[in-house]
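Input record, target 12 of the design panel.
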């Protein structure tokens, strides 16, 4: 199901094909279309899906994170059609200032079309240039080969496996350092 964003949105980041906005109360159906799809969320917890209450909590958490931290997993839309492609963004990683975790979730209709790479590259650039981030971290479910390939393609380096409470599994963890200023 292709969900579109009907209202006018304030975009703050763009790529050739995508516009990034922030989650709003009106986006609940979009959040549900994304995180309510078990094929999208099967890597996120030990039961392999998010129920309606968990989707609602995730949406609320993203809005709260934007308000408090000025980051979230921002919803992104195709420029041409306004269709929701998924979300890509940041969340604070540790108590150390300016270290964020990168994440991306795409709707099934947009898998395999280069959107994850395009979106992640834009968010990485935003993190280093606009947020003055020192480094980014990322992790993925151990069985999610597409995510592993994406992180390596983006220049992340494997660090270690870390136990993730939500899945009960050890997830490969990666680091991307801020490029040196020349």
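The sequence produced for target 12 reads:
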């Amino acid at each position: 199901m292709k969900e579109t964003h009907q209202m006018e949105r304030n975009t703050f980041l763009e790529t050739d094909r995508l516009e990034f906005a922030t989650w709003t109360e009106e986006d609940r159906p979009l959040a549900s279309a994304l995180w309510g799809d078990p094929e999208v969320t099967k890597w996120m917890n030990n039961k392999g899906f998010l129920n309606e209450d968990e989707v609602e909590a995730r949406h609320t958490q993203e809005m709260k994170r934007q308000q408090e931290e000025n980051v979230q997993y921002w919803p992104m839309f195709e420029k041409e059609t306004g269709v929701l492609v998924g979300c890509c963004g940041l969340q604070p990683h540790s108590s150390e200032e300016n270290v964020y975790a990168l994440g991306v979730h795409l709707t099934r209709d947009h898998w395999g079309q280069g959107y994850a790479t395009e979106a992640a590259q834009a968010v990485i650039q935003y993190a280093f240039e606009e947020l003055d981030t020192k480094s980014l971290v990322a992790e993925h479910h151990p069985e999610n080969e597409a995510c592993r390939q994406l992180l390596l393609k983006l220049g992340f380096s494997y660090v270690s496996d870390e136990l993730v409470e939500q899945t009960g599994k050890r997830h490969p963890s990666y680091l991307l350092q801020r490029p040196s200023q020349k």
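Residues 135 and 178 are 5 Å apart (CA to CA).
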